[in-house]
Design brief:
Helix content is 39%, strand content 22%. The protein is an alpha/beta fold and 498 residues long. The chain has two domains: 2-248 and 456-478, 3-Layer(aba) Sandwich (Aldehyde Dehydrogenase, Chain A, domain 1); 252-437, Aldehyde Dehydrogenase, Chain A, domain 2. A seven-stranded mixed β-sheet has the order 15-16-17-14-13-19-20, sandwiched between helices. A six-stranded mixed β-sheet has the order 10-9-8-11-12-22, with helices on both faces. β2 (6-8) and β3 (11-13) form a beta hairpin. α2 (62-78) packs antiparallel against α4 (95-112) and α2 packs across α7 (180-191). The longest helix is centred in the first third of the chain and has 20 residues, at 40-59.
Length: 498
């Protein structure tokens, strides 16, 4: 069994709080690690290391900072297989899916390598008589990220890569369920030439989160997790004067128009609904076929495909998905399937009885498919975060659009159609932050921003892309005049450019 540590000031540091949590291997149900839970003092030590290191890093010119990120990319490529193996072992997703997790983080690091251009300000020559005006983008100082279990490589890199590129120091609090990869990323960044103290990793629970939220030296917090905790982090962080961005839950719909390519649609629903065991904030958890004929045809095809899903251990390269992350997650998702039956939905495919031969203690659940789900049911209202797809039948396009708009979450949505007018109208009118047209998981590429609407996101700026540079910097505007030798005398009115 592995004894994990924190990573503070460029070194692995053993936990001193006396509090630990257990790390489990989802494939087998066996304990594989002991994870220290940081005290307020340990969080404070990470912040102090970050605060001491940050000024020199901020003074390093952007091109040299970019070179460190470029070296980090080389090391990520070198250790890709090792990172994916550790990620799959701790999280439960397949090796192939783990590599996708890493790659989406890599793409944001690649974007952040453009920091010499991204941090350029503005300049106006001769804005007034002998007056020039220019703006500067400057780092905030010490910032922090609180990241979830479901993407232990991607989301930390989404947070710390742009923050560090901008000249900030970063304190990361990853999920205590699978913290090994974040610790490995910190080691690789140090090897790439990042100064000690610029990236620190503290493992912990609510005590560590509250310590970060209340620490006066933390200037900004980024969070990804459930909506309830996102609201808590946003409110407490803002109350202490921090810049805060929080991303919460989701209930992503895929609208199926009568003219949709049904083969393409079913492939999309299977991959987006059941990939990574449904443990994605961008997973499609609701299919909305328009018209009864469309719904009947969709269900006929989906039942066969869901029944034939291959569930296996993370090491099985042919598996469609692996186990859920913990025993508690498994019981939670099973409970939602039980609830759906009680609420009157039709359980067309029941995966609750699935057992993985040779891995009977692992956290596996077969694919589940509900039909005739209605908007008043909890399985429709709430995020299940498992391999469960609900079909909500809509009579018309307007009914389908209303379903998407009325839901409290607004993270991602998709429409499958051959009709350009319908797609264009949908993209314009749907009240959701990220939209796919014949694309089931519309996660934007790294140089666009990622973020939902409504109760899926709290804060004004999104993740990665241009918003990440805005979030991790503040603008300073300078108005300058150089004396010409002419004395104008004192002025008692507000300066203008006249």
């Amino acid at each position: 069994m592995q004894e994990l540590t924190h990573f503070i000031g460029g070194k692995h540091v053993a936990g001193t709080s006396g509090r630990f949590t257990q790390g489990w291997q989802p494939m087998t149900g066996e304990q594989i690690s002991r994870v220290p839970l940081a005290s307020k003092a340990e969080v404070r030590a990470a912040v102090e290391n970050a605060r001491a290191a940050q000024p020199a890093w901020a003074a390093t010119n952007p091109q040299r900072r970019a070179r460190v990120l470029m070296k980090f990319l080389q090391l990520l490529e070198r250790d890709n297989d090792k990172l994916a193996e550790v990620l799959a072992r701790e999280h439960g997703k397949t090796i192939l899916d783990a590599k996708g997790d890493i790659q989406r983080g890599v793409e944001v690091v690649e974007f952040a390598c453009g920091i010499p251009h991204l941090m350029k300000g503005e300049f106006t020559d001769g804005a007034g008589p002998n007056i020039d005006v220019y703006s500067l983008r400057q780092p905030l100082g010490v910032v922090a990220g609180i990241t979830p279990f479901n993407f232990p490589a991607m989301i930390p890199m989404w947070k710390f890569a742009p923050a560090i590129a901008c000249g900030n120091a970063f304190v990361l609090k990853p999920s205590e369920r699978d913290p090994s990869v974040p610790l490995m990323l910190a080691e690789l960044f140090l090897e790439a030439g990042l100064p000690p103290g610029i990236l620190n990793v503290v493992n912990g629970d609510k005590e560590a989160v509250d310590a970060l939220l209340d620490d006066p030296d933390i200037q900004a917090i980024g969070f990804v997790g459930s909506t309830a905790i996102a609201e808590y982090v946003y409110a407490r962080g803002c109350a202490t004067g921090k810049r805060v961005q929080c991303f919460g839950g989701a209930k992503n719909h895929l609208v199926v128009m009568p003219d949709a390519d049904m083969d393409q649609t079913v492939d999309a629903l299977i991959g987006a609904g059941y990939g990574s065991a449904g443990e994605r904030c961008m997973a499609v958890s609701v299919a909305v076929p328009v018209g009864q004929k469309t719904a009947d045809e969709l269900m006929r095809r989906l039942i066969t495909r869901v029944e034939s899903l291959k569930i296996g251990p993370s090491t099985d390269s042919s598996a469609d998905y692996g186990p859920l992350v913990t025993a508690q997650a498994l019981e939670r998702v099973r409970g939602y399937v039980d609830l759906g039956v009680e609420e009157g939905a039709t359980l067309a495919v029941d995966g609750r009885g699935f057992k993985m031969q040779g891995y009977e203690k692992g956290y596996y659940l077969g694919g589940c498919l509900f039909d005739h789900v209605t908007p008043d049911m909890r399985i429709y209202k709430e995020e299940i975060f498992g391999p469960v797809l609900s079909v909500v039948r809509a009579n018309t396009y307007e009914d389908a659009l209303k379903l998407c708009n009325d839901h409290e979450y607004g993270n991602g949505v998709a429409i499958f159609t051959r009709d350009g007018d319908a797609a264009r109208d949908f993209a314009a009118r749907v009240q959701v932050g990220m939209i796919g047209v014949n694309v089931p998981i519309p996660v934007p590429i790294a140089y666009y921003t990622f973020g939902g609407w409504k109760r899926s996101a709290f804060g004004d700026l999104n993740q990665h892309g241009p918003d990440s540079i805005r979030f991790y910097t503040r603008t300073k505007t300078v108005t300058a005049r150089w004396p010409s030798g002419v004395k104008d005398g004192a002025s008692f009115v507000i300066p203008t450019m006249e």
